[in-house]
Amino acid sequence: MGVLRSRTLLNEISWVKLTQRCPINGSGLRYEKGENMKVATSEYRIFLSQMDREFIMSLLDPEQIQWNHLEKLLIEPDSLTQILDDPRIHQSVISRGPALKISPHLYFYLVLRHEFQQVQLHNALIAEYVSWALAEFSLKHPTDKRGVISPDSTLLHAVDFMQLVHSVGAYQKFLLELWAGNYYLIWAGIFHDHLARRERRYGAPGVRFYQKLGWSSFHCAQRHPLADEFAMKSLLGELLESYQNICRALTRLSDEVFIWN
């Protein structure tokens, strides 16, 4: 593919906006220009649309909670997590699936949150982060797995990624590593069957290779000084510790739940 084509691909998925914000498939943290970078917001946190709010309110018992009070709770992160953990909400998502009129981020979060808890991943931030990466990936790759017969035009190969990493500065490298961690985690988890077929038929790198590449990218990002600057070090550390469980959860959901099947 080459470095030039790699740059073109990454621009096409809208992450290289280095003068404005961090990558949509990376940390999602806005920053203000100045001598010291300041984090203004963490975009991977759940932000409910009006449709999301209406969906949640339609499932909760109005006699048990005042709707005005519920509106306030939906803004507070800890309260929102507790509300979204209501089994009625998860069951509605599983039973109705893509027909639901909710945001992709909330859809993926509700499915992932339940699955992660089954493998003892109780930190809601992990579910928020991975679901946000999935939502952004789905916007750029709106096809199902049956349509991905030859995805090599969209899969950034490891050699091209390494060339790109070595061609950029320290700041861009941090953003690249975050983006690559998300990107290869999704490929290894969601499209594991396709990677396995490529490995069997052509001897191409398989699932374990891309799992390791994703883990290595997160590891490099977590060790980067900007991980502290963007308040990502703790989150990335927990993601690394739970990486294999996250991969297994994505694989199961890909086979049984997600619309990419």
Structure in a nutshell:
This protein has about 260 residues and is mostly helical. Helices cover about 60% and strands about 5% of the residues. It starts with a helix and ends in a 5-residue tail after the last helix.
Question: What would you note in describing this structure?
Answer:
This protein has one domain. α5 (87-96) packs across α6 and α11 runs antiparallel to α13. The protein starts with a helix and ends in a 5-residue tail after the last helix. It is globular. It has helices spanning 2-12, 50-59, 67-73, 77-84, 87-96, 104-118, 124-140, 158-165, 170-190, 192-202, 207-223, 225-229, 233-241, 243-256; strands at residues 29-32, 38-42. Strands 1-2 form a two-stranded antiparallel ribbon. Mean pLDDT is 75; it is low at 1-41 and 143-153. By secondary structure, it is mainly alpha-helical. It contains 14 helices and 2 strands; from the N terminus they run αββααααααααααααα.
Q: Please report the distance between the alpha carbons of the first and last residues.
A: 28 Å
Number of helical segments with 4 or more residues: 14
Counting structural domains, the number is: 1
What portion of the residues fall into strands of 2 or more residues? under 5%
Question: How many β-strand stretches?
Answer: 2
In the sheet with the most strands, the strands line up as 1-2
**Average pLDDT for all residues:** 75
| Oligomer description | single chain
General shape = globular
> Describe the biggest sheet?
2 strands, antiparallel
Helix content: 55-70%
Q: Look at the helices and sheets and give the structural class.
A: mainly alpha
**H/E element sequence:** HEEHHHHHHHHHHHHH
Give me the Rg, rounded: 19 Å
- Poorly predicted ranges: 1-41, 143-153
